[in-house]
Amino acid sequence: MVRRIVASATDTRPRIAEASPRHEGTFTAVHEAFWAAAKKALGDIEGTKALVKVLLLHRHQQHADVVTGIRAALSAGTFNEDVIALEARKAAQAAGPAPTVTASAPASEPLDLDPAQVTPLTPRRLARALPADQRPLPRLEQWDELLQLRRKDSS
């Protein structure tokens, strides 16, 4: 889902392109109502942040469940994303499907590897001992000198 904002040279207001979530139907009137109520109660910036947090719930929960959670939060007069997530999980459990979804593709079949093709490196590493470290221990006197230096005024 890609949002493109289009602005023309004569019109200074940005317009949402045709491939937007509004036109696809994923940004519903319930989302609009939540955003408007959140902006009215919390201010433009905090209301928009609340909407973004709610939109992120769509990554892990079904769309219809999140919309149900938004409706419940609006009726309760809250804009907390945790309340919406909880109500969405309740709706998912009542509907029967798993309460969460994953945004990634389904897991592929596990690879059938032949153990003879895999060469473990641990016996090879243990066969050769690491050489002894010949470096001298670090000196800390220089650090002590740095701690005693005073900062010069930058004026």
How would you explain this protein's 3D organization?
This protein has 155 residues and is mainly alpha-helical. It contains seven helices and two strands; from the N terminus they run ββααααααα. Strands 1-2 form a two-stranded antiparallel ribbon. Strand 1 and strand 2 form a beta hairpin. It is flat, with a radius of gyration of 29 Å. The mean pLDDT is 76.
Short description:
The chain has 155 residues and is mainly alpha-helical.
Query: How do the SSEs run, as a string of H and E?
Result: EEHHHHHHH
Overall structural class, as computed from helix and strand content, comes to mainly alpha
Q: What is the terminal separation in angstroms? A: 54 Å
**How many β-strands, per DSSP?**
2
Taking all Cα atoms into account, the compactness measure Rg is 29 Å
How much strand?
A: under 5%
Helix content: 40-55%
**Which stretches of 5+ consecutive residues score pLDDT under 50?**
none
User: What global shape is seen?
Assistant: flat
Strand order of the largest sheet: 1-2
Total of helices: 7
The average pLDDT value, as a whole number, equals: 76
Largest sheet: 2 strands, antiparallel
Notable traits:
single chain; 155 residues; mainly alpha; two-stranded antiparallel ribbon; 2 strands
Write the layout of secondary structure elements.
Blueprint: E1 5-6, E2 15-16, H1 21-24, H2 29-42, H3 44-56, H4 63-76, H5 81-95, H6 122-127, H7 141-148
Antiparallel strand pairs: 1-2
Helix pairs in contact: 2-3, 2-4, 4-5
